[in-house]
């Protein structure tokens, strides 16, 4: 192996604050307290992923989590993921309806074309549509040309806006993956807030060349898919961690102002018959606390921006 | 020194010394067990250069999910971790990517104000010593000494290689630069002399098995079970220390343990530890100093020599 070039010991971004320009460093516990509508302590943001994994999804430069992994043609995971779109999501929708909750659904753009009935059910349930890229095989990365990435973003948004009749101003990238210019491309296409970055329990503003983009919190390690399929932990373990997460955020809200409690779900994970009652347990627990405001992520973003 | 890691079968950095019959270690104040907490306060770069041996991120730069996950520690998690340690009366021994002094002096100040120790965990956690020449590696050691001295007034005593990357000569050049303890070896529950060309370097018990990143993300252990294994590890070491003082380390990462679903189970575990009279709540530097001052370094060195010569 040749020795490293001397430039390996150069650190051009070694200076105060972050090593990129998207946002400033900030101590969450030192910020002006956030106030939610009606004095709520915690805004509960439930975001259900609705995904299509194409049978021919590429492996390069990387696969989004949950990707097909068996030799082609992968009947196993293609159909297992699609279970979420045919059955699982309706179990989640039914539970949310029973609780009277309006939430967010992050939906791959292609779903609007493939399964318009699914999109209708989400809209008729009073939920918010968030753009989740075009499909799970179209990951965003720095190797995409600007025009190509722009076309993917524009197409996903067009499909979801036309199919839902909503403005669709929120974005979640497949695999939460971005290239260097993704935030600019999102803003250019009318996206106002984004769930990709996992560095905060509160919203914060990101800079782009095209205007601001609000980073909205989305829990990473208590995501139902991460707990079950990456950590191989049981449903009761998932329930416990989500409850524990809520307890701490709720407690902190007494001293430091409002918090966002996000609950990322996947229709093909939490929509399984043996799992959905665990979701009910989580919701029952959180909702028995006073001062919990359940709202689509877009309304939480709006309430945050109003007080900025 | 040849800047190539020749292939050999043994690190050659320490001699064998079985646990039974070792010279007794007594910690200051007659305490049984030294417990130190080592938060890895790290900075992972957005667009780091590649190292042919290890690519910093799993996805092409920028890997915004993993980058932001780690950044959570410096925006949010460090405060929860610090509050839990304050409550239990633990000072931290910070395993520091020293560039963090430049990026986030606010965090450094909060640690320094509490009397926490800083030891070096390299410049960034996205720069590895793999494929470095000896001179390049010496340069990062100098950088670490200078940066920590300039920002905190502290003289570095300890070292944990960035992302645990090492070369065969690393311990020699750390000792030559004045580093007193390394955290890169996991072969013992007591500090042990390391065989280096100059200076007096010891291996400080750090831990893979208590390290939150290993426990949560490699072993896939739940937060509450992490609390359990910390307590069990402690109980056993506390008993074992009836005979001779041992060391327990809890290495942390604020982006992990500082998550809201994890902090309470951890806080409860360290409260439990702090509730025992025989615990010495200490730092890496203090353990190293006590090891030398009590004569343990010399006694262990003599015991190993005697074992080799067959006189023990």
UniProtKB/TrEMBL annotation, chain A:
GO biological process per UniProt: carbohydrate metabolic process
What Pfam families does this protein map onto? Polysacc_deac_1
Describe the function of this protein. Answer: Is involved in generating a small heat-stable compound (Nod), an acylated oligomer of N-acetylglucosamine, that stimulates mitosis in various plant protoplasts.
Protein name per Swiss-Prot or TrEMBL: Chitooligosaccharide deacetylase
Annotated ranges, domain NodB homology: 83-190
Organism the protein comes from: Albidovulum denitrificans
Q: Name one GO molecular function term.
A: hydrolase activity, acting on carbon-nitrogen (but not peptide) bonds
The entry's family comment says: Belongs to the polysaccharide deacetylase family.
Membrane spanning stretches: none
Classification via InterPro entries = Glyco_hydro/deAcase_b/a-brl, NODB_dom
Q: Which SUPFAM superfamilies match?
A: Glycoside hydrolase/deacetylase
From TrEMBL, chain B:
Please give the InterPro entries that the UniProt record associates with this protein: Glyco_hydro/deAcase_b/a-brl, NODB_dom
Describe the location of the NodB homology domain by residue ranges: 71-181
Q: Which CDD domains match?
A: CE4_PuuE_like
GO molecular function terms attached to this record: hydrolase activity, acting on carbon-nitrogen (but not peptide) bonds
Single GO BP term:
carbohydrate metabolic process
Q: Which Gene3D superfamilies match?
A: Glycoside hydrolase/deacetylase
Q: What does this protein do?
A: Is involved in generating a small heat-stable compound (Nod), an acylated oligomer of N-acetylglucosamine, that stimulates mitosis in various plant protoplasts.
Q: Report the sequence similarity comment from the record.
A: Belongs to the polysaccharide deacetylase family.
PANTHER family, per database record: POLYSACCHARIDE DEACETYLASE (PTHR43123:SF4), POLYSACCHARIDE DEACETYLASE-RELATED (PTHR43123)
Protein name (record): Chitooligosaccharide deacetylase
Q: Which organism is it from?
A: Albidovulum denitrificans
